[in-house]
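Table S2 (text version). Query chain:
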Amino acid sequence: MNILLVRLRLIGDVVFTTPLIRALRREFHDARLTYVVEPAAAPVLQNNPHLDDLIVIPHRRGLRRVRDDVAIARDLRRRRFDVAIDLHGGPRSAWLSWATGAPRRIGYTITGRTWMYTDAIDRPPDLGSSHSVENQWALLAPLGIAPPNQVDDSVEMAADGAAAARVDERLRRAGISAAHPLVVLHVSAGNPFRRWPESSFVSLITGLIRRDPARRIVITSGPSDAAAARRVSTEARRQLGVHAPALPDAGEFDLTELRALITRASVYIGGDSGPAHIASTTRTPIVELLGPTLAGRSRPWRDPRWYSETIDAGALPCRPCSQRRCAPGDFRCLTQIDPDQVAAAAERALQHARVPGERERQA
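Corresponding structure-token output:
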């Protein structure tokens, strides 16, 4: 059987499809599995042991997009897929799935696009509490594959030895050794509805380091939030004074390096974003900050043996929301998450941390 998977965006959503890839390989041992993805999330799938082929297509606009898609469609059609599964549901992914000419095309029931599929599956509401892994897994139902569980069907991303070596060298140059409990703090998110206030990050950083000056905190961010990360670092160092070296500048990390960095860490702290879900592919303890989304939908999807904790502002009449407009106008689902609350969760996570690197070696 020749199976195509299409999931174009975003990084976290692509991470959430990785259990599904494993399930297809488990169910159809001899199948050829091909995945179409855009460049930003491609590193998540590189060297995935269950895929036979990864097709990375450009993310461009206008006439260039049209020309790209015509060429891509011709290539996909030549590959003669038996099944095409649209894990995205957007106009582009739906059209590419249809253009394969696969006898069986599976996707979500979406107005204006349902006709492109032979099997249309109702998609749970975006504000629902079912996990994103389960939402995408629903597309496997027509193939007779049973529902997932977090132990056997956790998210995954292959380790990259070269990236790990680069990260180890950068940490060494930053003065971070295995003797330092390492905290990775991701300060950005995909949109303002998921960004914890900069002042809260500063309070968290200073509190964690003052409790234990031996700790080292590495701040990471997406390219669009690099300035915010610098502001957080500058203010935290100012407040830390003599303890400022505990907050070194280790530079920027690509996705494979970020995963290697998180693997090396004692705890990862960050909002509901792609890096948090990359953290879920490791065994490093996680503290995830949730704003408008619910834990049931975006919690770390991995074996419960590996410590994870979600922190949110509790029940609010406006939560969850569609993340199109903050009705109260004050982003209270984020501003009401207290830094002391997050620090306490981080301390619990640090108690569960093992020797750096040991988690990856364990079966």
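Notes on Table S2: The longest helix spans residues 62-78. The longest strand covers residues 32-37.
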